[in-house]
Design goal:
The complex is a heterodimer.
Chain A lengths: L3 E4 L2 E5 L4 E7 L6 E7 L5 E8 L4 E4 L2 E6 L4 E6 L8 E8 L6 E3 L3 E6 L1
Parallel strand pairs in A: 2-11
Antiparallel strand pairs in A: 1-3, 3-8, 4-5, 4-9, 6-7, 7-8, 9-10, 9-11
Chain B lengths: L4 E3 L2 E4 L5 E6 L6 E7 L6 E7 L2 E5 L6 E5 L5 E5 L8 E8 L9 E2 L3 E5 L1
Parallel strand pairs in B: 2-11
Antiparallel strand pairs in B: 1-3, 3-8, 4-5, 4-9, 5-6, 7-8, 9-10, 9-11
Classes of the chains: A mainly beta, B mainly beta.
Chain lengths: 112, 114
């Protein structure tokens, strides 16, 4: 059974810092991995999707990497801003290719 | 381009009642998925509909049921509500298989069961 773990559960940093969020999964047979952002009480916003054949994806200040063999992904945020404060969730596709399996998320707080 | 919209935004029900939640998928998307997110947890997959047929289901009891309509909008129905059903219910749409297409989520319906 696929399980997704995110470390740390919470993170507080001052504005301007570069930071890394970690995601690990137990079954390396994934189709893709997706990172999401969730603001309090809101839905999820897709940040980056990495196909299983890819090693990384970049969007602006965000860079996500994927190492299938070790069951790990990282989300790198450069030059953090207070507006980056949110919960970040990673998710992998199940074997049937129909459902995302989510971690519990990392709650990020960036202070000005 | 219209995003995923869900209604209502908030709902309070009593244990034992039934509830229907609605979702309009993003324009051009033919696949709709529903997720339940309890407080402090990641979303849990309920089921997925592709072109009006259920094509995947998570570990939820039969009292959770759904529909997808010809315009690809969708409903989630929950019968015999229990206190543990209190959660944020998220609808997501995608173009074809979730394997290749990113999911686009709505803002959810906050259901409280008392």
């Amino acid at each position: 059974k696929q399980e997704v773990t995110q470390i740390p559960a919470a993170l507080s940093v001052p504005e301007g810092e570069n930071l890394v969020l970690n995601c690990s999964f137990t079954d390396s047979a994934i189709y893709n991995l997706q990172w999401f952002r969730q603001d309090p009480g809101k839905g999820l916003t897709s940040l980056l999707l990495i196909q299983s054949s890819q090693r990384e994806q970049t969007s602006g200040r965000l860079n996500a990497s994927l190492d299938k063999s070790s069951g790990r992904s990282t989300l790198y945020i450069a030059a953090s801003q207070p507006g980056d404060s949110a919960t970040y969730l990673c998710a992998v596709i199940n074997q049937a290719g129909t459902a995302l399996i989510f971690g519990k998320g990392t709650t990020l707080s960036v202070s000005s | 381009e219209t995003g995923v919209t869900q209604s209502p935004t908030h709902l309070i029900k009593t244990r034992g009642q039934q509830v229907t939640l609605r979702c309009s998928s993003q324009s051009g998307h033919n696949t709709v998925s529903w997720y339940q997110q309890a407080l402090g947890q990641g979303p849990q997959f309920i089921f997925q509909y592709y072109r009006e047929e259920e094509n995947g289901r998570g570990n939820f009891p039969p009292r959770f049921s759904g529909l997808q309509f010809p315009n690809y909008s969708s409903e989630l129905n929950v019968n015999a509500l229990e206190l543990d059903d209190s959660a944020l219910y998220l609808c997501a749409s995608s173009l074809d298989s979730t394997r290749h297409s990113p999911l686009h989520f709505g803002n959810g319906t906050r259901l409280t069961v008392t």
